[in-house]
Write a structure and sequence with these properties.
Strand content: 5-15%
Strand order of the largest sheet: 1-2
Distance between the termini: 63 Å
CATH topology: Outer membrane efflux proteins (OEP)
CATH architecture: Up-down Bundle
Helix content: over 70%
Number of domains: 1
CATH class: Mainly Alpha
Order of helices and strands: HHHHHEEHH
CATH superfamily: Outer membrane efflux proteins (OEP)
Shape: rod-shaped
Number of helices: 7
Oligomer: single chain
Number of strands: 2
Length: 330
């Protein structure tokens, strides 16, 4: 009989019971996206600070050398042009420091937007970031496990699961309209006058559409919604795997860049120190030494950028696998 297994009231109740799960999934999604944004801003901030330190180190070297050359010029040990060239290099590196300082200040301002006090007032960012930490390594077994867990933990999967369960309720409710509609009637009658008394009338009516056009249309519509939810789940699962693959690709390329930048930095430093020895021995010029130091600084900055990109890729991976709320930096 129609409504014997599921009626409109019970269908509404079952769908309403899904709302807490949907709210929980939406909350997880908001938190994950917020943590991803925060981690990206933090790594930008930490990278800018490390780049600033590199620029300051190179600038300080130029300042010390310029002061030493100025003393030698006073003693007549070298030409005044060497001192001018040294001051020119100081001015150039000061410009690099100011440029790095501006980038650091900009990243600090962006990161401070996410800082709040317990009373809801904005909190100033007065600290400096830690040095870029070593990122965790990922094993093939860990990656495979994370892939499976992502299909259970990502909020998009939880959301589509609620949508599928709601569509299933609609399908089951639509089937009820294909059953006969049974109505029972009961009526009590009371007579007054000479022949007073009670009488009862009981009736039972069964109705059923001939072609079920409306019921079939409603059933087909609910089945289409259920099919669409199933296809949407496949799309979501495929997108999750694509997010993981993209993060793994970024991790792999960043790791290769780190290895290349480390070699470049090591070789550049060896060349720089060799050139410094030649300069002190009078076998090289200040111009060549400055170029060697610039090459070393450039290699160090490339290394910092590769390390930051690696950490950003790790954050993307944690977000893609639904694990970004777990703490991995100790």
């Amino acid at each position: 009989m129609q409504g014997i297994f599921l009626d409109k009231r019970r269908a509404t109740f079952e769908k309403a019971a899904l709302r807490p799960d949907l709210s929980r999934a939406n909350e997880i999604q908001i938190k994950n996206n917020l943590l991803l944004t925060a981690s990206e801003l933090y790594w930008d901030w930490a990278e800018a600070y490390s780049q600033l330190r590199v620029a300051q180190q190179v600038y300080e070297i130029a300042v010390v050398r310029a002061q030493a050359l100025a003393e030698r010029v006073k003693r007549g040990e070298t030409a005044a042009l060497d001192s001018v060239e040294a001051m020119q290099e100081v001015a150039k590196r000061l410009g690099d420091v100011l440029k790095a300082q501006r980038k650091y200040e900009a990243s600090s301002i962006k990161a401070s937007v996410l800082l709040w006090n317990q009373d809801g007032t904005p909190r100033a960012l007065n600290a400096v970031p830690y040095s870029l930490p070593p990122a965790p390594t990922l094993t093939p077994a860990q990656i495979e496990f994370d892939r499976m867990q992502a299909l259970r933990n990502r909020p998009e999967v939880l959301q589509i699961d609620v949508e599928q369960r709601a569509a299933d309720v609609d399908v089951r409710f639509s089937y009820e309209f294909l059953r006969p509609n049974l109505e029972a009637q009961f009526q009590a009658l009371q007579y007054f006058g000479g022949a007073s008394g009670f009488d009862y009338r009981i009736g039972l009516s069964i109705s059923q559409p001939l072609f079920f056009r409306e019921a079939n249309a409603q059933l087909q519509l609910s089945q289409i919604k259920a099919t669409r939810a199933s296809l949407k789940r496949l799309e979501v699962e495929r997108k999750i795997q694509a997010d993981i693959d993209d993060a793994l690709s970024a991790i792999g390329r960043a790791l290769e860049r780190i290895e290349a930048a480390e070699r470049e930095t090591r070789y550049a430093y060896l060349v720089q120190e060799g050139e410094r020895i030649r300069f002190l021995a009078g076998e090289s010029s200040l111009l060549i030494l400055n170029l060697r130091e610039r090459a070393t600084a450039s290699a160090m900055q490339s290394l910092v950028n590769a390390q930051a990109d690696y950490l950003r890729a790790i954050s993307d991976y944690l977000w893609a696998t639904g694990k970004i709320q777990q703490r991995w930096i100790r």
